[in-house]
Design brief:
The chain has 13 helices and 37 strands. With 675 residues, it is α+β, with helices and mostly antiparallel strands. It has three domains: 294 residues, TIM Barrel, CATH 3.20.20.80; 116 residues, Galactose-binding domain-like (Jelly Rolls); 128 residues, Galactose-binding domain-like (Jelly Rolls). The strands form ten sheets. Strands 12-10-7-6-5-2-1-14 form an eight-stranded parallel β-sheet. Strands 16-19-24-21-22 form a five-stranded antiparallel β-sheet, with no helix packed on it. The longest helix is centred in the middle third of the chain and has 21 residues.
Length: 675
């Protein structure tokens, strides 16, 4: 059972946010219990020991007056923690996450933030949300604790709002009372420039939240910092004890008269969090410490700035430091002007970052393991009771495992209002979905795709004629988007199944794997960083192609060529029932045939499936399941050949058997990790 304080483990925390099917706002509406075990096992097999879970206040508690919970999310939360614990992973919870893409909540996140301590219903709802979560979490040893973050209570957004809104929030949030207790009107007037406010303030009740870049930003920031750590965190910890806090390491710009260079207000007073906290959460971006006039930073420059950031925080606290978002790559549209690390220098950066992480931190977390399409449709996979969609009388919901789908008879119509938009400056989107004949017919399906504006104007229309006796992907590019428009799919032919809808403008590229879950070029360097951070070498449950290197296997030639045998270690963090091998032999090696044998600890298996020229995927059912141990293994071929035997002009004098693409444990032949 978790203790009342955040439990920092003795070993480094090597974490990733868990987002297997979608980007963060859609995590809960796309969470699939049928694939969950394999997804968590893949994370563990890659060397991670912890997952970070986003727990939105909105979504989990869609109504505050009266308090109402989305019971399905609470049930999923319980099931998710149980599966994480069964996988021998640790878990960190981001409490109060501000975004939820699956269901509509009222009031929205921003309205709740400013009312936590001023509206009795919102106040009680926040308290009840924390108590409800703790009632579940306290039963799971895998949970190290949780954290709040400035990002989910981002008061700086309000500085861009109109004056009347800023005046209302200043009163509602307690800013005016804060000023009254800490500053004279003369001090305040000196920081509120006359070009924005026509006369001096003579009453605290007239003082608004300052506008963007105003010198008074530092007053608003001081209030915000104290509100977060002295008020929100202190109160929240009473009801969810093992809480820490992610501090803001960025600074806000403000103007001063006759300034020759940009001035900033920073948040260093929060870095120690409070007297009851012994771990401080941070985030990292290559733009930290840069003026963003350079497009790319070298590894040397990026490492200098990372050290500077960590030293800056260390000067303010002796807390353990954990970087929960180590975003050394980031393509968020809002930040495309920010300095990035030169892609050619990422390997060098990761090598240097290893030493800094060892010196200053207790570990790091990725924002995402793999790149993710940013779907703006609600419940596009139909996993959550088909919420968010409208259908007519010629449509019905069906479950066609592994998919959930809608069945459209002739005249059937499916539609959704486009009421979400996150982080996009692009008005042209991509639309993907899957279709299949409901009767597995080979005649063309006849569908019409439409997007109609809120005023009834047809913005986009396409006729779809596709033969799909089995599931087939439909893809459209340059599809126009407008908020509150309606996307619809109408069927004018034979009955059709449709599902897996995704409407997106961009892919979030924070992952170390691409959107197809293939390793990126720097993945070997990233994996080496993970291995060096661990107190013990990371022993995986399987080796992907990127992991099959001469550094891991002395017997392996370059480009994953195996000679007579290969040996190593495998970790069995699950109860595995099968072993898999993916291998390639050049297709022109005519009449090539080979047989493999496998030694797993004391178990010797002659693999009956033979290896031939071309691509080979071999599943070896294990006589007995293997669990919770590290095993030595040897994969051996019955013969080796010279490439000269098949290529007359070859200068390759090696004796080879095959080219390995991947090998290791899996639960069964249906749960193979991606190539």
């Amino acid at each position: 059972m978790p203790t009342s304080a955040f439990r920092t483990p003795a070993h480094p925390i090597i974490a990733t946010h868990f987002q297997p099917h979608s980007w963060a706002p859609d995590f809960w509406c796309t969470l699939n219990l049928q694939t969950l075990d394999a997804e968590l096992a893949d994370i563990h097999a890659r060397g991670f020991n912890t997952v970070i879970i986003l727990v939105p206040w909105v979504g989990f508690q869609p109504q505050v007056r009266p308090i109402q919970y989305h019971q399905e999310y609470l049930d999923l939360f319980n099931a998710l923690l149980a599966r994480i614990q069964a996988q021998n992973l640790s878990c960190i919870l981001r409490i109060g996450y501000a975004h939820e893409g699956g269901i509509v909540s009222y009031p929205d996140s921003e309205a709740r933030q400013f009312a936590v301590f001023t509206d009795e219903y919102v106040h009680e709802a926040w308290r009840d949300y924390l108590r409800t979560l703790w009632g579940i979490v306290k039963n799971y040893d895998c949970v190290l604790g949780g954290f709040l973050t400035w990002e989910d209570f981002f008061f700086l957004n309000i500085v861009h709002h109109p004056l009347n809104t800023r005046l209302r929030i200043a009163k509602q949030a307690g800013y005016q009372e804060f000023l009254k207790q800490n500053y004279s009107l003369d001090e305040i007037n000196a920081l509120y420039p006359r070009r924005f406010y026509q006369r001096k303030f003579r009453n605290y009740n007239h003082i608004p939240v300052p506008s963007f870049k105003s010198p008074a930003i530092k007053l608003w920031s001081q209030f915000w910092d104290q509100w977060l750590t002295k008020k929100l965190l202190a109160f929240s910890r009473e009801h969810f004890p093992p809480l820490s806090f992610e501090v803001r390491v960025d600074c806000e710009p403000f103007d001063t008269p006759q300034q020759t260079m940009q001035q900033y207000v920073c948040h260093k007073d929060t870095f120690d969090v409070d007297a009851d906290t012994d771990i401080t959460f941070l985030y990292y971006s290559p733009a930290w410490g840069s003026d963003n006039t350079e497009k790319f930073a070298s590894a040397e420059t990026a490492l200098y700035r990372l050290r500077w950031m960590l030293e800056t925080v260390r000067k303010q606290t002796q807390n353990a430091l954990f970087i929960d978002q180590f975003n050394f790559i980031d393509n968020t549209p809002e930040f495309t002007h920010n300095t990035a690390i030169d892609p050619q220098h990422l390997n060098e950066f990761l090598a240097g970052a290893t030493e800094l992480l060892k010196e200053f931190t207790v570990g790091f977390g990725l924002w995402a393991l793999h790149d993710i399409p940013t779907n703006i449709l609600r419940n596009g996979s139909f996993l959550r009771d088909y919420a968010g969609w409208e259908v007519n009388e010629f449509a019905e919901w069906v479950e066609v495992l592994p998919r959930h789908a809608v069945k459209l008879a002739k005249g059937g119509k499916l539609s959704q209002q486009l009421d979400k938009e996150y982080h996009s400056t692009n008005s042209l989107y991509q639309l993907d979905f899957q279709v299949c004949s409901a009767e597995q017919l080979t005649i063309p399906l006849q569908l019409r795709l439409k997007i109609v504006s809120a005023r009834g104007q047809v913005m986009y229309q396409r006729e779809i004629h596709v033969t799909a006796p089995t599931w087939k992907k439909v893809h459209f590019q340059e599809v126009p988007f407008k908020i509150h428009a309606v996307l619809s799919l109408e069927n004018s032919g034979a009955s059709v199944l449709a599902g897996e809808f995704m409407f997106h403008a961009w892919h979030q590229e924070n992952g170390v794997l691409d959107v197809d879950k293939n390793p990126k070029d720097f993945y070997p360097a990233f994996q080496k960083m993970m291995q060096q951070l661990q107190a013990q070498p990371v022993i995986p449950a399987y080796y992907s192609k990127a992991m099959l290197t001469s550094e891991n296997f002395s017997e392996l030639y370059p480009e994953q060529w195996m000679s007579h045998k290969i040996s190593g270690q495998l970790s069995t963090n699950l109860c595995y029932g099968a072993f898999f091998i993916r291998a390639y032999v050049p297709a022109h090696w005519e009449n090539y045939c080979n047989q493999l044998s496998l030694q797993l600890g004391e178990m010797h298996i002659v693999i009956p499936t033979e290896v031939f020229a071309g691509y080979n995927e071999i599943i070896v059912p294990l006589p007995t399941k293997i669990s919770y141990q590290t095993l030595n293994f040897v994969l051996e071929s019955s013969k080796v050949v010279s490439p000269k035997q098949y290529d007359v002009g070859s200068q390759d004098a090696r004796l080879l058997s095959l080219q390995l693409l991947a090998l290791g444990f899996c639960e069964s032949g249906d749960t193979l990790p991606p190539l």
